[in-house]
Amino acid sequence: MDTRAFDFELPRERIAQAPVEPRDRARLLVRPTGGGEARDSLVRDLPDWLRPGDLLVLNDTRVLPARVQGRRETGGQVELLFLEPVLPGTLLTPESTEVAPGADVWRAMVKPARKIKAGECVACSGGVVARFLEREAESGYWLARLEPGQGGHVGTTTEELMAIAGAMPLPPYIERPATEADTERYQTVYARKPGAVAAPTAGLHLTEDLLQRLDAMGVRQATVTLHVGAGTFLPVTADRIEDHRMHSERFELGEEAAAEVRACRERGGRVVPVGTTSARVLESCALRDPDFERDIVEARAGSTDIFLHPGSGPRVCDGLFTNFHLPKSTLLMLVASFIGVEEMRELYRTAIEREYRFYSYGDASLLWRRPT
C-alpha cells in the first residue's frame, strides 16, 4: 500500500503545546460501532461510551527524564536522549573507565553526534558526567553512560543520575523546553515501571476519579507494560508501508492481564486498549483459542516490532482509545488497521474541521474495530 495514503495537511495551530487541565476535560471524538458520523464528547464522559463487562488495558510504563544537556571541554553544547539500557546492572564509580560485562551502558541519540569522540566526557548539570564509549555503525547511536562527577555519590546508576541531570523528553513538535509541570503531567496517573522515553499519550487523559467511575460501573482494567521508544514518532519513509522496518520496544504482559482478557471474552465484553502501545502489546501476544470465536492472549515478555496496518490488523482488540497522530506514522497506520484507510482519513478530516487538538498533549478518539 502506498505510504502517501496516510499523509495529510495539519494546520500548525492544531498541534497542542500544552495539556488541557484537568486531564479528563480533553475532547473525545467517538466513531460509533459500525461506522457513521463521528460524535463529539469529552474524555470525562468515557463511561457513556463503554458498557459493563468491557476491559480497558493500560500501559503502566513510566517516562524517564532521559533528555540530558552537556557541555564539552571546548564549550560546545551536546544533547543526549537515553533510549534503552544495553548492558544494565552494574553500579559505576567515578574511577571506572572500561566497559565491564553487565556495565550500566545505554544506547543514546546524540546531537551533534559526529563531533563526539569515543572516551570523551561532557559535564552535565548536578555534577553529573556523560561518558561516550562507542558509536554504533548501523544506527548512528552512541553507547554511553552517566557517572557521578568529582565528589559525586559512588555507585549511582545511569537511570538514577537521569533524575539529577535529565529533563522530560517532550517530542520535537512541542516547541518549548520541558518545565517542572511536565515532570508530572507527561506521566499517566498509573505510571509504575520506569523505562520509556515517550509517554503512552492516550493514558495522559485518564484520572483516578475517571478510572474509579469506570470500575464502579463494571468496566474492568488490566495493565501491561511497553517502554515507548523514540522510534514511535518516526515517519514511514518507504514508498510502500510493507517495506517499512519497524522499531522494536520492550514489553511485558503478565498472567493476570492474560486472565482478564480471557474473562472478558467469556462474559462477552470488549477489549479496549488505552493507546497504541497497549494495542501493540496485546496483538504481540495474540493466541488462537478454540474455545473462543476471537483470539485471546498469552503471558509474554520480550521485545516486539509488530506493525499493525491495513491488511495486518488487530486480532485481540475490539476498540481503541487513542490520540490523533502524525502523518505517515506507524501509529496512524495502526488506526487504519482498526477502521480502514478511508474511514481514518474521514475521521482526521472531521477532527481538523472541528478544531480538535493533535498529538501528545492533544485530544483523544474512541474507535471500534470494523467488522471483518
Automatic annotation (TrEMBL):
Listed GO MF terms: S-adenosylmethionine:tRNA ribosyltransferase-isomerase activity
Keywords for the protein's UniProt record, in alphabetical order: Cytoplasm, Glycosyltransferase, Isomerase, Queuosine biosynthesis, S-adenosyl-L-methionine, Transferase
Annotated EC: 2.4.99.17
Reaction it catalyzes: 7-aminomethyl-7-carbaguanosine(34) in tRNA + S-adenosyl-L-methionine = epoxyqueuosine(34) in tRNA + adenine + L-methionine + 2 H(+)
A GO cellular component entry from the record: cytoplasm
Transmembrane residue ranges: none
Top-rank lineage group of the source organism: Bacteria
Pathway(s) it belongs to: tRNA modification; tRNA-queuosine biosynthesis
Cell cycle among keywords: no
Subcellular location, principal: cytoplasm
Compartmental location: Cytoplasm
EC primary class: transferase
GO terms, biological process: tRNA queuosine(34) biosynthetic process
Pfam families registered for this protein in UniProt: Queuosine_synth
Family: Belongs to the QueA family.
Function recorded in the entry: Transfers and isomerizes the ribose moiety from AdoMet to the 7-aminomethyl group of 7-deazaguanine (preQ1-tRNA) to give epoxyqueuosine (oQ-tRNA).
Assembly description: Monomer.
Name of the protein in question: S-adenosylmethionine:tRNA ribosyltransferase-isomerase
Species, as recorded: Saltatorellus ferox
